[in-house]
Amino acid sequence: MNIPPPSVMDKATFVTAFGGVFEHSAWIAERAFEHGIGSGHDSSAGLHGLLSNIFRSASGTERLDVLHPDHPGKLAAARRLTAESTSEQASAGLDALTDGERARFNELNAAYVAKHGFRFIIAVKGLNKDRILTAFEDRIGHDRATELATAATQVERIARLRLDEMLP
User: Fold this and answer.
1) Sign of the CA dihedral 35, 166, 157, 132?
2) Choosing from 24, 35, 68, 142, which is the catalytic residue?
């Protein structure tokens, strides 16, 4: 992707470029811009640090909204997944589940959401459906506080992977 450095963007351009880095959470990019974008934010690492700090400093409700409770399968069916999420899930084989695999993922997701109050989140890049399923089965037994922290870490990892594709 060939985009100008974040430090030279106006707010609208910045939010358009980076508003989807944290899925369906353009408010993070808006706050980051309002915080101030300098040349130190022109790299993937620099901008990721700022965006992640905005995410971490948000209210608990706002952070939980980033971990939106809609299951990715339902979002995909409603065509609400971003192009990035669709591509990321396809790279892990989640777009080609057998009926049995889909049923198992749906069963685990329902149990996970019932227990934790938000959907299972994992950065799928470099994983396949078997490794994702294993992580799902392992993490479902965690307490809510552990899973909130793990999900937030995974959301930040997804954001970093997306930024790595956009910036040097």
Assistant:
1) positive
2) 68
- Residue 68 falls in the annotated catalytic set: yes
Give the global pTM: 0.84
pLDDT band at 77 (very low <50, low <70, confident <90, very high): very low
Q: Name the token pair of 65.
A: 């909204």
In contact, 38 and 97? CB cutoff 8 Å? no
The pLDDT tens digits for 85-135 are 656 666 667 777 889 999 999 999 899 999 999 989 999 988 998 999 999
HSE-CB of 1 using CA atoms within 13 angstroms: 13
Structural domains in the chain, sorted by start: 64-151 (1.10.3330.10)
> How many whole angstroms separate alpha carbon 120 and alpha carbon 51?
21
Q: Contact, 106 vs 144, CB < 8 A?
A: no
Largest interatomic CA distance in the chain: 50
Report pLDDT digits (tens) over 27-38.
999 999 999 999
Helices (H) and strands (E) in the chain, counts: 9, 0
CA atoms of 100 and 35, how far apart (whole Å)? 47
